[in-house]
Design goal:
The complex is a heterodimer of chains A (479) and B (437). Chain A has 15 helices and 13 strands. By secondary structure, chain A is an alpha/beta fold. Chain A folds into three domains: 52 residues, no CATH class; 256 residues, Aspartate Aminotransferase, domain 2, CATH 3.40.640.10; 123 residues, Aspartate Aminotransferase, domain 1 (Alpha-Beta Complex). Chain B is of the alpha/beta class and 437 residues long. Chain B has a seven-stranded mixed β-sheet with strand order 2-8-7-6-5-3-4, with helices on both faces. In chain B, strands 11-14-13 form a three-stranded antiparallel β-sheet, with helices on one face. Chain B has a two-stranded parallel ribbon with strand order 1-12. In chain B, strand 9 and strand 10 form a beta hairpin. The longest helix of chain B has 37 residues. Classes of the chains: A alpha/beta (479), B alpha/beta (437). Chains A and B meet through helix 1, helix 2, helix 3, helix 4 and helix 5 of A and helix 1, helix 2, helix 3, helix 4 and helix 5 of B.
Chain lengths: 479, 437
């Protein structure tokens, strides 16, 4: 379809601003740009239609099943959106005097206290804008803690080989060297490997639990103990919290700090890649280092304050505030019964779907899973030539968003499936049926699967060509 | 209690039964019993009707000012209706990062168009798909300039203090030295900055217009950086780009900025938008997502996430940044805003900001005890003295329903935009006369 620039015609436009009602003041020529930016000149009707067409080429949660592993694509409740659109929130300047922004501060304070309770932490900062931003913030706390004790020898962060790429990347941004520890045959942390990796240079361990293969690491207390005994701290990556909310808390597993993804676990939408929100919770001994300002309550009034030994700031202002409004709406809606019910529902749905596929597709790990499961299509590929990618792409023809592919890296030909709790039994039954149908196709007509999808707006794009000859912006064709 | 689970209790039981189970607890067998939560210490859940009341009550505790003369990093601009209509389309709102290009062409194309607009706005060659906000964009830009022998960042003291703190935070964790050059007459001190750049300096960072609203010598600063062998990063206000010399024209290596003025509401500080654009030479150092154009097997134009060899999911600890989720919907917001304004509308908006700020300054400075602190050319922010304590001034203005400028050390930092009508400005001046009397 056309680019918005290709719809542009000189002299067209939308009617937005009135005429200027004050006199014009001279602008020195030398300060001005030489030519106007090439922005579209387009009537409002065509602008609207352009994006409506783009919307039709976009698959959102409301378009169909979205079992994208590790991303928790649950339904995004509408009331959340309406609450975040209240003018009493959207029209508030972040530098208004605090006495005129008590409602905003109350939102932050209530989000902090409820998230603290859910994670078993003492304090929470809502400043980080996304999960990776939260990871970085949590590591800053760990770093500041060691340095405050004069412990400068702790230069390494331990990360399991099954971890998300953001974990090692965040550690590097925080100035740490990354030590990768292997997973055992069950996909959990290899305890001997961990014991061998820790030492006086260990700053901390980063871990998700349930881990990225969808299993709850039953040795978790031992794991966190090993790290603590070595003088390191334990960081909980909240990417998979949707399995255990209200069932078990990171704080009770021995973790010292944690980040959450409000855009996964707490039902705020992903917006095609953001804005998210990645709050960081910590135990009391790390609280003096939190980025600031944090919300405090004095004489019944909320105020903002920089923590004593703050690491500084990871961005301007207080975070993606409106995303926090949505998450708080969700938490207050679900309440103490609804939150664990969401998690148990997610685990039930994942097991239900896994149960239907087991025996047809190879599971990377056996036994009940948590909120997601990982299949390995290695044998299928050997037998038929059909890869995880082929199966994923074929799902698109059935209106199902593909699962996460080729992750975690320790599983070959991986497909990681996370149905979430907000899908009905019929949706799961249908998905299982589609998966089985594709399996039959793989055996009967593998060639056609290499070409899938067949009914999408485009066929498989040439990614290699895109990277080799980058075209990253539109350039008008010279007349 | 509200819930978003379709399955009834009976259905849940049936699903368990189909797996040969009787209780959900059996699925949690791996969780040690001593760790299990008995009950969360949270209030009971609420119906939608009740939760709306609770949230609205909180929103009502805030004061919504209809007359806003405060900026300092968050700007009160008009948002055309089409912006919210487009960006609240549920396909865009509820989609994930466009990993699967075949069913994400809408999002991918919108980002490609956004990247083009950011290049046009800044005069730079390449843009990424966004980062979190203006502060983290500046910090990431400093990280892009790191070389083996050149690490230090020399930062103008006339930049937004929160952006400066963000840069310092990012730098401290990587042991990157930051040298701040105190501002002189409300602008970057060129001589002191030149003296601070040595052969360990990776980059300079300055802001245009700067924190005090003053227009810097962008060209001179970029030239100075290059003569001394380091990179120049320029933080810019995107509305000002409708009028002022671009980073591209100044010769900057990287342009960054806070994209909030491009159609995002004030929203108590977020979600906002960090935009980042660079020269072609620095393309592979850009953090985060970048969308590229390609073709599918049939030769149709197609868009994909590209140059992923920079990114964390491929490179892990060697990635250029850890960023994964960005601010995609905010980037779309900016693109729709820029398309709605068009080149003429954006220029008009910039000129109205400029004219109204100058009109307001002229009138305010006729009040005894109110005078302009920094006298260089400025865009839409300026600092004045006040005859009485600036905190008292803004407090009294607030009582009159006006959000005055931000109290700063030198007095008050005012901001005037196209949203401030002449009548509003005149009313501010009258109110100031009373407050300062």
């Amino acid at each position: 379809m056309e680019l918005i620039f290709e719809r542009s015609h000189v002299g067209r436009g939308c009617s937005v601003l009135p005429a200027c009602d004050v006199p014009a003041y001279d602008v020195p020529e030398s300060l001005c740009r030489k030519s106007a930016p090439m922005l579209p000149e387009i009537a409002e009707v065509d602008l609207g239609r352009h994006y409506t067409q783009l919307a039709k080429q976009t698959h959102g949660v409301n378009d169909g099943f979205y079992p994208l592993g590790s991303c928790t694509m649950k339904y995004n409740p509408r009331v959340n959106e309406e609450m975040a659109a209240l003018p009493g929130f959207t029209k508030i300047h972040p530098l208004q005097p605090v006495e005129t922004a008590q409602g905003c501060l109350e939102v932050l304070a209530r989000a902090e206290s409820t998230l603290s309770e859910i994670t078993g932490m003492d304090r929470v900062t809502l400043q980080p804008a996304a999960g990776a931003h939260g990871e970085y913030t949590g590591l800053l706390l760990i770093r500041a803690y060691h340095l405050s004790r004069g412990d400068t020898a702790r230069t390494k962060i331990i990360v399991p080989d099954s971890a998300h790429g953001t974990n090692p990347a965040s550690a590097t941004m925080c100035g740490y060297t990354v030590v990768s520890v292997p997973s055992d045959a069950d996909g959990c942390v290899d305890l001997d490997g961990l014991r061998a990796a820790v030492g006086p240079d260990t700053a901390g361990l980063m871990l998700t639990n349930p881990n990225t293969v969808g299993l709850f690491d039953k040795n978790i207390l031992e794991i966190t103990q090993i790290v603590h005994d070595a003088g390191g701290l334990c960081y909980y990556d909240g990417a998979n919290l949707n399995a255990v909310m209200g069932v078990v808390r990171p704080g009770d597993m021995g973790f010292d700090c944690v980040h959450l993804n409000l855009h996964k676990t707490f039902s705020t939408p992903h917006g095609g890649g953001g804005p998210g929100s990645g709050p960081v919770g910590c135990k009391a001994f790390l609280a003096p280092f939190l980025p600031g300002p944090v919300v405090v309550k004095k004489d019944g009034q909320y105020d903002l304050q920089m923590p004593e030994q703050t690491v500084g700031r990871v961005r301007t202002f207080y975070g993606n505030f409106l995303v926090v409004v949505k998450a708080l709406t969700y938490i207050l809606t679900l309440g103490k019964e609804g939150i664990p019910e969401a998690s148990t529902g997610a685990v039930l749905n994942a097991n239900y779907l896994m149960h239907q596929l087991e025996g047809h597709y190879d599971m990377a790990y056996h036994g009940p899973c948590m909120h997601e499961f990982v299949m390995t299509l290695e044998t299928l590929k050997k037998e038929t030539g059909v890869s995880a990618m082929d199966v994923a792409k074929r799902l698109i023809d059935f209106g199902i968003h593909p699962p996460t592919m080729y992750f975690p890296l320790i599983v070959h030909e991986a497909l990681m499936v996370e149905p979430t709790e907000t899908e009905s039994r019929e949706t799961l039954d249908h998905a299982a049926q589609v998966f089985l149908e594709i399996l039959q196709e793989a055996r009967k007509d593998p060639e056609s699967l290499h070409e899938a999808p067949h009914n999408a707006p485009i066929g498989r794009p040439d990614e290699v060509g895109a990277a080799r000859h980058p075209v990253l912006r539109y350039t008008p064709v010279e007349a | 209690m509200g819930r978003y689970i379709p399955a009834s209790d009976q259905e849940r039981q049936e699903m368990l039964k189909s797996m040969g189970l009787s209780s959900i607890d059996q699925l949690y067998a791996a969780v040690p019993a001593q760790m299990r939560v008995k009950e969360l210490n949270l209030p009971a859940g609420l119906s939608e009707l009740e939760v709306r009341q609770v949230m609205e009550e909180m929103a009502q505790k805030n004061t919504q000012f209809s007359s806003i003369f405060r900026g300092a990093g968050a700007y009160n601009h008009y948002i055309p209706s089409i912006v919210k209509t487009v960006t609240s389309k549920e396909e865009f709102v509820t989609a994930y990062t466009p990993y699967q290009a075949e069913l994400s062409q809408g999002i991918l194309q919108s980002i490609f168009e956004y990247q083009t607009m950011i290049c046009e706005l800044t005069g730079m060659e390449v843009s990424n798909a966004s980062v979190y906000d203006g502060g983290s964009a500046a910090a990431e830009a400093v990280m892009m300039c790191q070389e083996r022998k050149r690490s230090k960042a020399v930062v103008s003291g006339a930049v937004n203090p929160q952006v400066l703190t963000t840069i310092e935070t990012y730098c401290s964790s990587r042991s990157v030295p930051v040298q701040v050059i105190p501002a002189k007459d409300g602008k970057t001190d060129l001589e002191a900055m030149a003296a601070a750049i040595d052969d360990t300096t990776a980059c300079i960072y300055f802001q245009q217009p700067n924190f005090y609203g003053q227009i810097e010598d962008g060209q001179g600063l970029c030239q100075m950086a290059h003569e001394k062998g380091c990179k120049a990063i320029m933080g810019v206000n995107p509305i000002a780009m409708g009028m002022l010399q671009t980073p591209g024209e100044c010769g900057a290596d990287i342009a960054v900025g806070e994209g909030q003025p491009l159609g995002m509401s004030l929203a108590f500080g977020g979600p906002y938008l960090g935009f980042m654009a660079s020269t072609q030479a620095m393309m592979r150092k850009l953090p985060g997502r970048i969308v590229g154009q390609t073709t599918d097997a049939k030769g149709n134009r197609a868009f994909v996430l590209t140059l992923q060899a920079r990114e964390q999911h491929i490179r892990r600890e060697k990635a250029s940044s850890n960023i994964c989720s960005n601010q995609a919907l905010c980037a779309m917001t900016a693109a729709v805003y820029l398309a709605a304004m068009g080149p003429k509308g954006l220029a008009e908006c910039a000129h109205q900001c400029y004219n109204k700020a100058h009109y307001a300054q002229e009138k305010l400075c006729q009040i005894p005890g109110v005078s302009l602190v920094y006298t260089g050319p400025y865009f839409h922010e300026f600092v004045t003295t006040t005859p009485v304590c600036s905190q008292t001034v803004t407090q009294k203005l607030a009582e009159k329903g006006i959000l005055g400028g931000l109290p700063v050390e030198e007095g008050i930092l005012w901001c005037v935009t196209e949203q401030n009508s002449k009548a509003q400005i005149d009313a501010l001046v009258e109110a100031m006369k009373e407050v300062c009397a």
